[in-house]
Amino acid sequence: MDPDKHFIVVDTLFVNYDIVIDVQDKTTSVWCNECEQWVGTYEGDKLTTMSSTDFYEHILNDHGHQMGTAVSFSERDLL
């Protein structure tokens, strides 16, 4: 097992969410700063394979299921 792990942390892209990319296996994990819990871990580097709007919608939908309510947004909310 390799003791050295390398991550890229993006904490300025979405309000309340930190994006963590594992450089070795390219998984993308999302942390909610407000709930202090992991929203999900996704295969691949989602920041390079999805548009930021699509990825944000994906995060909100996954987080909404955790909280028991649907979450939606409009393009205007991203600006």
What can you tell me about this protein's structure?
The protein is an alpha+beta fold and 79 residues long. It has one domain (7-71). Helix content is 30%, strand content 32%. It has 3 helices and 4 strands; from the N terminus they run ββββααα. It has helices at residues 46-49, 52-67, 75-78; strands at 7-14, 17-22, 28-32, 37-42. A 4-stranded antiparallel sheet has the order 1-2-3-4, with helices on one face. 13% of the residues are buried.
- How is the biggest beta sheet arranged? 4 strands, antiparallel
Shape call: globular
Helical stretch count? 3
Distance between the termini: 43 Å
What's the total number of strands? 4
Strand order of the largest sheet: 1-2-3-4
| Helix content estimate | 25-40%
The residue ranges in which pLDDT falls below 50 over 5 or more consecutive positions are: none
Would you list the SSEs in sequence order as H and E?
Answer: EEEEHHH
Number of domains: 1
Task: Estimate the strand proportion.
Answer: 25-35%
Radius of gyration: 13 Å
Give the overall average pLDDT.
83
Structural class: alpha+beta
Quick overview of this protein structure:
The protein is α+β, with helices and mostly antiparallel strands. It is built from three helices and four strands, in the order ββββααα. It has one domain (7-71).
